[in-house]
Design a protein that fits this description.
By secondary structure, this protein is mainly alpha-helical. It starts with a helix and ends with a helix.
């Protein structure tokens, strides 16, 4: 309740009424757009308020962008039927931000004795090749060196 009182102090009664009308109008616009979208796209499309006849739709990827471009006529009709004046639709791709994930720490595990013996034999057979060097490196890591 304090938030509403504070808003009324800042905006005055006419400001709150105006803001309320804008929110209602935006919701009508959003519902009109959603009604023109297939169910699989509804969660991937966000609407910006209509500004001077330009409707901006924001989507999460290029595939959705292409589908929205193909549905532009249907979306325009739905928005106009809801009573809005639309002259142009713009579609912008805004990928969802992905959380930064740290790379897992490398864990060196000990190779069992029988495995080390087999690797040592393989290294000797491949002596002088890159494979022998790789096996040697693996053996060193397995000993914890």
């Amino acid at each position: 309740m304090k938030g509403i009182q504070l808003m009324s102090e800042i905006l005055g009664n006419s400001g709150i009424v105006n803001l309320s009308k804008q929110v209602e109008e935006y919701e009508r616009l959003r519902v009109a757009i959603q009604s023109a979208l297939p169910p699989m796209l509804k969660s991937s499309v966000h609407t910006s308020p209509l500004h001077q006849g330009v409707l901006i739709l924001r989507c999460t990827n290029g595939t959705v962008h292409l589908k929205l471009r193909a549905l532009a006529g249907q979306i325009t009709d739905a928005v106009r039927n809801a009573g809005f004046r639309v002259e142009q639709i713009r579609v912008k791709v805004e990928p969802r931000s992905t959380p930064v994930v740290s790379t897992p720490r490398r864990v060196h595990r000990k190779i069992p004795a029988a495995g080390r013996v087999a690797l040592e034999r393989a290294r000797q057979q491949c002596e002088g090749t890159g494979l022998a060097e790789a096996i040697e490196q693996l053996l060193k890591q397995s000993y914890g060196n």
